[in-house]
Specification:
The structure holds 2 protein chains of 2 kinds. Chain A is mainly β. Helices cover about 0% and strands about 55% of the residues of chain A. Classes of the chains: A mainly beta, B mainly beta. At the A-B interface, strand 4 and strand 5 of A face strand 10 of B.
Chain lengths: ~110, ~120
């Protein structure tokens, strides 16, 4: 079993829809949670960073962490074509980041 | 544009060549990282430098040789690479050592490396 499991997609939704991206993790030592967005031919861009259970909001993006069920989510409201990218969840316990496999998202105009 | 700058953006080299990848950050970050990313896969950690000292080597073959000349610069020296080493090589930095800090990592846009 991988330490971080992520729905692989691909996921296609119409413009304006709410997008839900999800990951589960198995290691209780993971304390910090991140979402990265990666456009084609670019490096991962940090979108959200949190270390507590609950919700964290930044504009159209909301990161949700449930440590009791080891579940992390990213919600995108009012999705735009510019949100089309691969989204990577990542967790950190001690020293290293552990990434999910990534979800490729396409927003259809 | 990212605050972690990598050069070159693209590199094609033969298996007998020697080349270097460069990474620079001016955010005052004390930890820098090299990752390898294959197509449709997440980044895989290769090396971590903390306060200019190598702190993690993920059992990377010796044909990859990292160097940290100062706190802002990170190099990856390449020699006698194999075709399977073709990938996107990403540099990242974080404010503090990953062992002590919880600061996130910030990535550059990578060097796309092709081995002929």
């Amino acid at each position: 079993q991988k330490e971080v499991e992520q729905d692989p997609g691909p996921l296609s939704v119409p413009e304006g829809a709410i997008v839900s991206l999800n990951c589960t993790y198995s290691n209780s030592a993971f304390q910090y949670f991140m979402w990265y967005r990666q456009y084609s031919r670019k490096g991962p861009e940090l979108l959200m960073y949190t270390y507590s259970s609950g919700n964290k909001e930044d504009g159209r993006f909301t990161a949700q962490v449930d440590k009791s069920s080891k579940y992390i989510s990213l919600f995108i409201r009012d999705s735009q074509p510019s949100d089309s990218a691969t989204y990577l969840c990542a967790t950190k316990g001690n020293e290293k980041l552990t990434f999910g496999t990534g979800t490729r998202l396409t927003i259809i105009p | 544009d990212t605050e972690v700058t990598q050069t070159p953006k693209h590199l094609v080299m033969g298996m007998t060549n020697k080349k270097s990848l460069k990474c620079e950050q001016h955010m005052g970050h004390r930890a820098m990282y090299w990752y390898k990313q294959k197509a449709k896969k997440p980044p895989e950690l290769m090396f971590v430098y903390s306060y200019e000292k190598l702190s993690i080597n993920e059992s990377v073959p010796s044909r990859f040789s990292p160097e940290c000349p100062n706190s802002s610069l990170l190099n990856l020296h390449l020699h006698a690479l194999q075709p399977e080493d073709s990938a996107l090589y990403l540099c990242a930095s974080s404010q503090e050592s990953p062992a002590y800090g919880n600061q996130p990592q910030h990535f550059g846009d990578g060097t796309r490396l092709s081995i002929l």
